[in-house]
Amino acid sequence: MKRAVCPGSFDPPTFGHLDIVGRASKLYDEVVVAVLVNKNKASLFTVEERMDMLVAVTAEYGNVRVDSFHGLLVNYCLAHQIPVVVKGLRAVSDFDYELQMAQMNHGLAGVETLFMATNPEYSFLSSSLVKEVAMYEGDVAHLVPPIVLERLVSRLAELR
Ligand code: PNS
Predict the structure, then answer these.
(1) Does 98 score more than 90 pLDDT?
(2) Ligand 1 atom 17, closest CA
(3) What's the rounded Cα separation, in Å, for the pair 33 and 8?
(4) What is the model's pLDDT at position 109?
(5) Counting runs of H as helices and runs of E as strands, what totals does the chain give?
(6) Angle of helix 127-135 versus helix 146-159 axis, rounded to 10
(7) pTM, 2 dp
(8) Contact 2, 28 (CB under 8 A)
(9) Looking at the predicted structure, is the pLDDT value of residue 160 above 90?
């Protein structure tokens, strides 16, 4: 069984994430989308809410599972027999930090990282920008799946 993990915060999941997860699902028998539990970082959605949205938006792929993890990604990989991390690279600006993490993860546990060039349509896209634009009532309907849009709009309305 060839297994890979797509890790991230997914606060919230965007079409950029889905592009990478969907393409990875064609390369591996199973792809685990793993949501980082990070108590030090304020988030708009709880880990459970993010997982719930991810389950809904990845259901069509058939071989994608959603999980959460805390601590080091490599420890999660070792515990679940996952040898590869798949990451999207949007632009050169992503490269420095992603390279550092990939080299660290390989050095720590021999976990490989596969970088996938993001679809140019989503090269500017990030969860933080989606939240900011949505917060000021900008249109993000083309950037996130409908179920995410619905929950984003209602969460922001609750906070207003
Ligand atoms: O969506 P994000 O926030 O850019 O995802 C970053 C993530 C979760 C992939 C990265 O921060 C991570 O792997 N964190 C887990 C902690 C860890 O393993 N740190 C050492 C990295 S070398």
Answers:
(1) yes
(2) 72
(3) 8
(4) 98
(5) 6, 5
(6) 50
(7) 0.97
(8) yes
(9) no
β pairing state of 3-8 and 30-36: parallel
Q: How many Cβ atoms sit within 10 Å of the Cβ of residue 84?
A: 17
Q: Which residues are catalytic?
A: 17, 41, 90, 127
Pocket residue to mutate for ligand 1, from 35, 72, 112, 116, most atoms within 8 A of Cβ: 72
Cβ count within 10 A of residue 60: 10
The CB of 109 under 6 Å from ligand 1? The reply is no
Taking residue 81's Cβ as centre, other Cβ atoms within 10 Å add up to 8
- pLDDT at position 45: 98
Lowest mean pLDDT among 30-34, 56-60, 91-95, 108-112: 91-95
C-alpha torsion 108→110→111→114, nearest 10: 120
